[in-house]
Write a structure and sequence with these properties.
The protein has 2 domains: 135 residues, Aspartate Aminotransferase, domain 1 (Alpha-Beta Complex); 247 residues, Aspartate Aminotransferase, domain 2. Strand 5, helix 8 and strand 6 form a beta-alpha-beta unit. A 7-stranded mixed beta sheet has the order 2-8-7-6-5-3-4, with helices on both faces. A 3-stranded antiparallel beta sheet has the order 9-12-11. It has a two-stranded parallel sheet with strand order 1-10. By secondary structure, it is an alpha/beta fold. Helix content is 41%, strand content 13%. The relative contact order is 0.17.
Length: 394
Amino acid sequence: MDVISTQMRSAIENGSWIRRMFEAGIQLKQQYGEDAVCDFSLGNPDLTPPPAVGVALRAFAEHVDEPFSLGYMPNAGFGWAREKLAAYLSSEHGVQLAANDVILTCGAAGALNIIFKAILEPGSEVLSVTPYFVEYGFYVANHGGVFRTVPTLPDTFALDIDAIDAAITPQTRAMIINSPHNPTGAVYTLSELEALTELLARASKKYGHPIYLIADEPYRFLTFDGATVPSLLPLYPYAIVASSFSKNLSLAGERLGYAVLSPLFEERAQLMAALTLANRILGFVNPPVIGQHIMAGALGSQVDVSIYARRRQMMADILKDAGFEFQMPRGAFYFFPKAPGGDDVAFVGKLAEERILAVPGSGFGGPGHFRLSFCVGDDVISRSAEGFKRVLGR
């Protein structure tokens, strides 16, 4: 008897490797103890939120007994919260944004889902590059779209503009990119993004409809060695930035994100109306009340990124000493080394025998590699050194 849809049955059977390894980690920790397992599977920030978060939360708590303090608000979020966010993002992206250019959402995932709901027809294609964040395909399928991928350049994971050009069809409605990138740590340069936007502008004109460029940017704040994240908003009228406060404020569980439209887009009011309706009818209704108060009080604050920089170097030293091949991440908190022997799933199994949890690159459309998240304690990174040496020695 079919009790669930074919689509969901397939999704469950081919479920996220990230979650599989996370659940495997729970079992190993129960068996051997928390301190015996080195879990690099999940990008769940372990740093405490910056002090401004606590200040804002306590300030809100003083007024929580007022009428409607936790009630409904407009589907796009509080007007005052959107105004504050628009002013902050204007400075960050170098453009002039108004409150009506910004919508608050239930995390960046909520932002991406309302975007796809607003722009996709059944069968519309959304392009991304491999490797990619594993949930993108599910988000596109949620709204009747077809998810297609294009390889990046070998070793560097840079955008292959020629390959993207060849992949665009009359059905292409959007492309989604992620920089700083999960899982590779790549940061796309201004020249790459200019080439990409020029290509998409030509294709939009050729096919007679906008090809949106969606930038998923929850790691914008976290770059290393002087790398910067250029803004797409002043480069391309059909640019949409989706992001959240999950990583920079360590608020992953509070589920507060946003989408912002380029002020170069003359018809953006129509798109914002569609996003606002999608926020409601997809069941989000409105963004979290408490999260908006926290955001307003903590804009401009972030976790101590020097801790991530130190951990990045620790992990690099351990991997290099053990003999792994990898590219140093320029942003985000992931390494994406090559899997010795090429079989990433088998190699991740060998790591698990050493009680080291990683995620196969196949789960990100990047076979032959594996992902390590270094948003974990220094002690976890340090005690993994011998296990990495042993598994490579086998």
